[in-house]
User: What shape does this take?
Amino acid sequence: MALVAQFLFATSVWARLDAAPVAARCLPIIRRGLVATCAIVDLEMSYSARSPESYAATPADRALALELLATDQAVLDRAVDVQAVLAERGEHRPAALPDLVVAATCERAEVTVLRVAGCSTGSIGVARVPVGSLSAHPQRALP
Assistant: This one.
């Protein structure tokens, strides 16, 4: 099956989807079926569940609505490569391990990471992944 998705939303987007500016930008993209997920984002979203019922519903809901990008050994190897580049610059400590995997996954699938402005993108930049930013604050304009 050919890849349809053009975006992967970072957890910063999912966490702020109830904010009007984020919803205005993201809900139409979701409705058009252009959003993917990957195992590490799904793990982070499940971790954020606040009840057993919410935990059980999260993976099922996401599987129905989002295209799944593969996170295989090649992706993990690329995440290690990205971390090594950051280490050469002395910038590896702020790069969260999930962010390294997300960046490598998106690079391989050639999708854009959409994140809320102000969240770290160091590993994403090294992995040559297009990044879109949006504001969760109504007073700031969206790109």
